[in-house]
Amino acid sequence: MSRLRGIHDEDLEAIEIGAAILGTGGGGNPYIGKLRCREELRRGRKIEVIPLDELDDDALVVSLGGIGAPVVGVEKIEQGEECLRAMRALEENLNVRIDALISSEIGGANAMEPMLTAAQAGIPVVDGDGMGRAFPEMQMCTWSIYGHCSTPAAMADEKGNVVIIKSTRSEVWVETLARANVVAMGAAAGIAMAPMRGAYVKTAAVPDTVTQALSLGRAVLSARRDNSNPIEAVLAHEDGQLLMTGKITDLKRHLKGGFAVGHVLVDGFGEFAGERGRIDIQNEFLVFRRNDVVEVCVPDLIVVLDVDTGLPITTEVLRYGQRIAVLALPCHDLLRADLALKVVGPAAFGYQDTTYSPMPRSKKMEPCDAT
């Protein structure tokens, strides 16, 4: 199997689609990130990708992405170098040079941020991430779950403000302090955190997720070109399950503590006529209920697609009356261990009475070929 070595202009649309699907409604809309990456490539810069197993054990890798509420990105346009400034502040604080970047979450706009910053800094991005999807809080990265400290961390906003979080008593406190700062920054900022050596990244990262986003997006685009069903293409590519097709009949969404929170009600049609679905939101889609019974919950992925185009719909662009397909996709095994479920399972989001039941897989999930 050929290995993904770099991202080119023609790859960006597919990554945008694949990352938005894996974002489970959150992570921010990757459209603007796609445009910004395209501009970097047109300036002659490169987006180099390192396969996880080829990463040098001694390489210094930093987890990087945006922090805030996705809905804010509809009106607040980034300056463009927030994550680069955060990365440089971390280098200055530690008196080091960072060798490579990795996405904190492959979902949504945070798939694009490390690529953009890597192009600006002239360093590569690692083919992997810390979630295999998107989650609303930073301690939900696999490197935090499996024992690595996220501090020191650096935050930067579009106004030129930079904040260093030197150390905290726990990973939850990193999230708490960063969330308080990002609210003051206007609910959107860049963050660089969790300096790690390559040897640890190889054990803790969800592998091959840049490749996964690219090949998933290509599957959707190919289905649309061939006039075949893009929803079926997503299900086949990710070993997923169709939960419901229906129309949004109610939507409640508001900002709370730096998060977009709320729920969506869906009245089924077609084979799901007469059924009612509900999706709970905290930046991402967390829980799906059919007729008030929980069917799928975090850490498995709940995805909302336009029923006609198969394109992903993120939480900030949900609207009353949209005709949607709700899908469930299995998460990576790193998120299914007992240690991980304490951090990313339903109880971590306040669903104390909900028990996570892993989605079955009909096939072994293998790394995707991006050719």
Structural class: alpha+beta
**Major β-sheet, in short?**
9 strands, mixed
CATH class group of the largest domain? Alpha Beta
In whole angstroms, how far apart are the ends? 9 Å
Shape: globular
Return the domain count: 2
Chain-averaged pLDDT: 92
Order of helices and strands: EHHEEHEHEHEEHEHEHHEEEEEEEH
Number of strands: 16
Second CATH tier, the architecture of the largest domain:
3-Layer(aba) Sandwich
Rg, Cα atoms, Å: 19 Å
User: Helical element count?
Assistant: 10
Task: Please identify which CATH superfamily of the largest domain we are dealing with.
Answer: CV3147-like domain
Low-confidence stretches: 365-371
Beta content comes to 25-35%
Q: What does this protein look like?
A:
There is one protein chain. 28% of the residues lie in helices and 28% in strands. The protein has 371 residues and is of the alpha+beta class. It has two domains: 6-207, CV3147-like fold (3-Layer(aba) Sandwich), CATH 3.40.1610.10; 229-349, CV3147-like (Beta Barrel), CATH 2.40.390. A hairpin with a 2-residue loop joins strand 10 (241-256) and strand 11. Helix 2 packs parallel to helix 4. The longest helix is centred in the middle third of the chain and has 17 residues, at 209-225. The radius of gyration is 19 Å and the shape is globular. 54% of the residues are buried. The model is unreliable at 365-371 (pLDDT under 50).
